[in-house]
Design brief:
The complex is a heterodimer. By secondary structure, chain A is mainly beta. Helix content of chain A is 0%, strand content 43%. In chain A, the strands form 2 sheets. In chain A, strands 2, 4, 5, 8, 9 and 10 form a 6-stranded mixed beta sheet that branches. In chain A, strands 1-3-7-6 form a 4-stranded antiparallel beta sheet, with no helix packed on it. Chain B is mainly beta. Classes of the chains: A mainly beta, B mainly beta.
């Protein structure tokens, strides 16, 4: 197995830019994917691969990676972006997507 | 519409068993690996198990290995999770999720989840 580490909470002023990070050794070999989860709802994929957005995800969401750190950036955060964000990647064996970060609670002020 | 719908959750006593189902529609189910992911109340996401498109490759989290069994029926477009020897710490919302596949490394479709409560 392996671990992914996220800051528990981050805040951003409305309209400003925020970066949410995810650290782990597996990220040196594999991309992270990012999920947004609002209270009482299922997670939603927002970023995967090098920097890919599923259909319907606003282009203010972007992803990047360097070394053992993956980042999710929201450029011009909106009130509706307030949510929990989770990163995910393969485990150390590379066999499955078995590792989630602990999640980051994003507050939009 | 691409959709996953879980069912089978409920209240079960410690040591009991439960079988979850996930019905897929709107896509070629037999072409995708599938997963179960759970979330304990107030906690983060935890991957539970995955199964490849033809059931050739199956993996489990250490926390459920030997107690849970994942399976699928491609003819019925359905995914299952047989949960035995349930513990209080298995209490969670259980989601089924589709693996986007092709080295794209992501869960692109999620069900709405089904709640499992293990309590005496």
């Amino acid at each position: 197995s392996s671990e992914l580490t996220q800051d528990p909470a981050v805040s951003v002023a409305l309209g400003q830019t925020v970066r949410i990070t995810c650290q782990g050794d597996s990220l040196r070999s594999y991309y992270a994917s990012w999920y947004q989860q609002k209270p009482g709802q299922a997670p939603v994929l927002v970023i995967y691969g090098k920097n890919n957005r599923p259909s319907g995800i606003p282009d203010r969401f972007s992803g990047s990676s360097s070394g053992n750190t993956a980042s999710l950036t929201i450029t011009g955060a909106q009130a509706e972006d307030e949510a929990d964000y989770y990163c995910n990647s393969r485990d150390s064996s590379g066999n499955h997507l078995g590792v989630f970060g602990g999640g980051t609670k994003l507050t939009v002020l | 519409e691409v959709q996953l719908v879980e069912s089978g959750g409920g209240l079960v006593k410690p040591g009991g068993s439960l079988r979850l189902s996930c019905a897929a529609s709107g896509f070629t189910f037999s072409s995708y690996s599938m997963n179960w992911v759970r979330q304990a109340p107030g906690k983060g996401l935890e991957w539970v198990s995955s199964i490849s498109s033809s059931s050739s490759y199956i993996y489990y989290a250490d926390s459920v290995k030997g107690r849970f069994t994942i399976s699928r029926d491609n003819a019925k477009n359905s995914l299952y999770l047989q949960m035995n020897s349930l513990r209080a710490e298995d209490t969670a919302v259980y989601y089924c999720a589709r693996d986007l596949g092709g080295d794209r490394d992501a869960f692109d479709i999620w069900g709405q989840g089904t709640m499992v409560t293990v309590s005496s």
